[in-house]
Amino acid sequence: MSEDLKRLAAEAALGEVQSGMRLGIGTGSTAEHFVRGLGARVRGGLDVVGVPTSERTAALAREEGIRLETLENCPELDLTVDGADELDARLTLIKGGGGALLREKIVATASTRMVVIADAGKRVSCLGAFALPIEVVPFGLRATRHSIESALAALGYSAVPALRGGTEPFVTDGQHHIFDVELGQIHDPVAVSEALLRIPGVVDHGLFIGIADAAYVAGPDGVDRLTPAAG
Ligand SMILES: O=C(CO)[C@H](O)[C@H](O)COP(=O)(O)O
């Protein structure tokens, strides 16, 4: 999908930002458009403080002259704006393609509102075409992989978790690793979430359930503002 659509979604979300806000700032290529747009507004006089969801976002935000705080010093946020790898009609998300899912979920959950920005290619009727990222501690990787496989098998999935980075595993900002799991279709995200979170080596996963309040989705015909469908 084109960078233009990502930028359009990001620009639309900037309309929700007001002076005085404490902002969670997401990670990824779409979020980068948001950071650049936010930087331009800050240079124009907008007064906000940002809590970044990754070291990568922090570096870009600093370059843009955005005032940053840690979540430790600023534990209650007004709004988080972040991208997603997939979103469905309920605004359940898959995130973590960029490897920042844990901080992203912590920051979004600390926010009164979370707004997603995405191009229309991310919108799906059923989550799961994008491999689900699962963040795990490095200790006991093989045992954790086995537990993930067993837990998913009990839900009817024959999925093989792939360690991101392979022989040179990807390391998250929290010094963890990520397994990516191809599930195909996730009909019951809550069941998948609960099963994964019962595994001790699993820190978190990329399913965001009941966290997003709205989404700006940009397609060839413009930007749609979505809110979670009931049911
Ligand atoms: O969850 C994420 C990072 O952990 C990103 O928001 C997600 O991967 C979308 O990225 P992009 O905007 O580059 O498509």
From TrEMBL:
Catalytic reactions on record? aldehydo-D-ribose 5-phosphate = D-ribulose 5-phosphate
Q: Which GO terms describe its molecular function?
A: ribose-5-phosphate isomerase activity
The active site of this protein is located at 104 (proton acceptor)
Residues annotated as binding substrate: 27-30, 82-85, 95-98, 122
According to its UniProt record, the EC number is 5.3.1.6
Please name the InterPro entries in this protein's record. Answer: NagB/RpiA_transferase-like, Ribose-5P_isomerase, Ribose5P_isomerase_typA_subgr, Ribose5P_isomerase_type_A
Q: Name one GO biological process term.
A: pentose-phosphate shunt, non-oxidative branch
Note whether Isomerase occurs among the keywords.
yes
The cross-references to NCBIfam families, in alphabetical order and at most eight, read:
PRK00702.1, rpiA
Entry's PANTHER family? RIBOSE-5-PHOSPHATE ISOMERASE 3, CHLOROPLASTIC-RELATED (PTHR43748:SF3)
What the record says about family reads: Belongs to the ribose 5-phosphate isomerase family.
- Protein's UniProt name: Ribose-5-phosphate isomerase A
Q: Which organism is it from?
A: Stappia taiwanensis
